[in-house]
Amino acid sequence: xxxxxxxxxxxxxxxxxxxxxxxxxxxxxxxxxxxxxxxxxxxxxxxxxxxxxxxxxxxxxxxxxxxxxxxxxxxxxxxxxxxxxxxxxxxxxxxxxxxxxxxxxxxxxxxxxxxxxxxxxxxxxxxxxxxxxxxxxxxxxxxxxxxxxxxxxxxxxxxxxxxxxxxxxxxxxxxxxxxxxxxxxxxxxxxxxxxxxxxxxxxxxxxxxxxxxxxxxxxxxxxxxxxxxxxxxxxxxxxxxxxxxxxxxxxxxxxxxxxxxxxxxxxxxxxxxxxxxxxxxxxxxxxxxxxxxxxxxxxxxxxxxxxxxxxxxxxxxxxxxxxxxxxxxxxxxxxxxxxxxxxxxxxxxxxxxxxxxxxxxxxxxxxxxxxxxxxxxxxxxxxxxxxxxxxxxxxxxxxxxxxxxxxxxxxxxxxxxxxxxxxxxxx
Length: 427
Hints:
Shape: globular
Distance between the termini: 19 Å
Structural class: alpha/beta
Number of helices: 16
Radius of gyration: 26 Å
Helix content: 40-55%
């Protein structure tokens, strides 16, 4: 969002795993879980440094970056081991918003110039640690780079005198007064630092302190106050909780004013437990936290719809959702596109695991990948021919045939619709 100061996490990849820093190879647990936590906990952007030393490890790290981008929503930038324009392209194709060049490498500026012309200046960043580089290349920096990552906070005064290029600065330690002071600088776009990378730190609490200090940050500033809502006889409001990705209804709970305010300030769903008569942050003991993506009041202002990122399961029974006990169910033809595609895909996967004698799917699969590709080629031709027909019925039929055979290929290659949707979302 324009005008907001960013809280930026830095992630270091070694052999496809997240390590503590460029000098400390301590593994920080599962890299995807870590990035999902960053995604949900209030981090605005992740900068990834590829610490690979050869092409094989470089490819492995790029694959990890691609998978990270498929599973999170926030901006990702990456750099490290960039030696040719192909490396820039691979990172952008892996879903990175921007690519970071290292000012200490002699070849960086020339390669960055080419990349800036080819892919656009807005996609090219530079990491720097001394002001001499800026002094020598002042004009090229402003023409080539969209943003700077300043690794040495001591140079920012000199930097601002030499260039108007906006920057993110790496803070060596947590000092709230210093952070607020730095964040007030006009050309500063955000801060990074080890204290931000620490998954134990409360980023939303940091943002609240920054906001109280007059810094504009992307946190939850509600459009409605608690006093705008209509309370039930117990002085509470029911909350319907929904998965923000697939819109599955997860649970129903209640908020009082205290729970509402804690939810807004922490970014984690917090309720009032009527049975225990106490405040209850969902998942605080089980780890099955719910991170807020949006809160919306209904037309009467007496119910809240919460869309969340659910960690683990929502129900105490171990089910993903609390709503699993059927009462009545009328058969109907499912028309939701994603539900239909995932349902058909699930049948294809089941045929792989449990073949049926008269199954067309199994007949195609048994003949191998060449037969699947042959079928896809045939269906492509049929689509082209049907498109020439003024009647669209044939075209719908042929597209459906193509997608069915495409799903057989997806199942063979273990590619899911969630991965395809993630790829499309990046385009």
